[in-house]
Design brief:
Low-confidence stretches: none
Number of helices: 3
Oligomer: single chain
Largest sheet: 2 strands, antiparallel
Strand order of the largest sheet: 1-2
Number of strands: 2
Length: 143
């Protein structure tokens, strides 16, 4: 018998046997996965801008800095989406198993803290790059 196992940030895990996958459960998991995938693709497209600008030797261009800022925001959004929406998806998936109850559980793990810390550091670095880019443009105007 096959199983679906999804480990989510925040110590949530969805583990379903083949007979527990109803159309509603499949729709919930598909909806969650689609949102996560959309954020991941947005993140990768944002970092692509950085690489394209670097290939043209424009490391501190406005396009590059905006791309990095969007990349940092998308990564933070992805972590929060997985934590919050994952807990809600887990609650909806478990709802048919326990009649008359609906509970959302959030957990804090070392992995979640380290990933959130990394996302915030990237966001701070993106802000530093934005300030650097503004200073670069201002200095370029004086020369």
């Amino acid at each position: 018998m096959s199983r679906i196992n999804l480990e989510l940030r925040g110590a949530n895990e969805i583990s379903l046997a083949e007979d527990q996958i109803t159309p509603i459960v499949g729709f919930i998991i598909l909806t969650f996965a689609t949102g996560y995938f959309a954020l991941l693709v947005f993140s990768l497209l944002s970092i692509r801008k950085i690489f394209l600008e670097a290939a043209n030797q424009r490391w501190l261009s406005l396009k590059s800095v905006r791309g990095f800022r969007l990349f940092a925001l998308a990564n933070l959004g992805r972590v929060l989406y997985e934590t919050i929406s994952g807990a809600v998806a887990l609650a909806f998936v478990n709802m048919p198993r326990v009649e008359g109850s609906f509970s959302v559980q959030f957990g804090i793990t070392d992995e979640l803290i380290s990933v959130l810390f990394t996302a915030f550091v990237m966001l701070i670095a993106a802000h530093i790059f934005a300030v650097s880019q503004a200073a670069y443009e201002e200095n370029k105007g004086f020369i």
